[in-house]
User: What shape does this take?
Amino acid sequence: MPNLFKITKYTLNAGAKHTFRTGSRYHIIFVLRGTCRISDSGAHPCRPSDIIFLKPKQIQELQASSKKPLCHLMCLAVSEGSLTALSDPTCDLAESFRFAPYGTAVIPGEMRSAMLLRNMAVKLDSLREEDIKLGTELYEKSLFTTFLVLFLRICVQSDQVHQFHQKKMLVLDDVFEYISQHLTEDLSLKKLEEEFFISGEHISREFKKSAGLTLHSYITRARIDLSKKYLLQGMSVRDVCQMCGFSSYNHFFKMFKKECGMTPMEYYRKTRGRL
Assistant: This one.
């Protein structure tokens, strides 16, 4: 039975680099120990148990970034011919590998089943060296087929997580846009929950991470900035308060003074005097 795959191990000293040239094969690279960086994805850090997937005709450089322990890598290379040979009517492995791993090239080791996949690769590497030879080829074929299917399933799961995070970022952009277009309206967490079908707690937490300030503070500052424009157009303070979505005149007065260090009328007189 011809070899279905080839496994090669690499040990990199701190700062050392290795260039992978896939040729006609797919490369599934496991980070066994230490850390390394992948060159063309913003120096993406790869930690133990992370999985790097390279397709045919790719050239990729990995650089070890940890001093102790050394960076240990294990590369499993598989040809499209092997994938075709192991396919059946229910699953075309060769076709599936052409599309994997969708939106991600590095699969985090925290992904469910990633550790199991790594252990299977280690087992495949040591299988032919075992003392018991009974059914070795059948065992290897069965285990490797399971390995390939599990890898594809992890790719699907990884892509779903990737898409979820992308969606979160898109939703956050939409929240910024919605706030800018509805400053004079109700912008409570309850209202945003109804608008985006996401919990207010999640919106508030992600907003703080992105903007560096709370959602309430951001909305207040945006409303204060809008109120300044209306004040300089000669509108009364009470009209400006209503037009900018503040709950009451006293609240507007208090927030304006807190943000600007002066009352609305003091701001008007001081700024108009400069114009």
Notes: The two ends are 87 Å apart (CA to CA). The mean pLDDT is 85.
